[in-house]
Amino acid sequence: MKLKVIDLKGKDTGRKVSLPTKIFDIEPNNQAIYLDIKAQMANKRQGTHKTKERSEITGSNRKIKKQKGTGSARAGSIKNPIFRGGGRIFGPQVRDYSQKLNKKQKILARKSALSIKAKSNLIFIVEEFSFGKPSTKGMYQFLKQLKIDTKNSLVIFAEENKNVYLSSRNLKKTKAVIASELNTYLITNAHSLVFFEKSISKLEKLLI
Asked: Contact at 8 Å (CB) between 146 and 192?
């Protein structure tokens, strides 16, 4: 698959880049995509939620009333969960939500997500450029030329491009990352992918 290379003004440069078929033209594996995104979202959870159980409540352990003859349920101490201020029954505890996914499956998921975008013609290749200083307006105008300014877009560099990154940071629907940070969630969450020309060869080294 070959895509034309466009410039900062959104015009065709007359050059084309071949997308590696082993990355952008495979049979998508939806199960791998699901598992990878599920693991990524789970790994973001802190798991620091916590409520105090009966043994952790500050208070006396003295029996507050006699066992029988009161006409109400028996109660051992003021820390009993049935009382206000008592321990919480089956409350949330600190836990680790992280899930492990093997490397091959992660790579398959990323390739599958990229292949879906390629088959949907939602990938753009842009020649290398940078701004003299951060320019949100300049970045917005570039995305507008591609007609993706109103949709979620992901810009991918080969190496860090500070001014372009800072220019996209204030755009609510645009995110910029380097190729090594690209993951399945970012790909599927974006409507369109904008690759800097050199990032394709970088991605090829990472995924093949």
From this structure: yes
Which helix (H) or strand (E) segment is 138 a member of? helix 136-145
Looking at residue 179, what DSSP letter applies? G
What domains, with CATH codes, occur in the chain? 2-45+99-207 (3.40.1370.10), 46-96 (no CATH)
Q: pLDDT tens per residue, the chain (208 residues)? A: 899 999 999 999 999 999 999 999 999 999 999 999 999 999 999 999 999 999 999 999 999 999 999 998 888 999 999 899 999 999 999 999 999 999 999 999 999 999 999 999 999 999 999 999 999 999 999 999 999 999 999 999 999 999 999 999 999 999 999 999 999 999 999 999 999 999 999 999 999 8
Write down the pTM of the prediction: 0.88
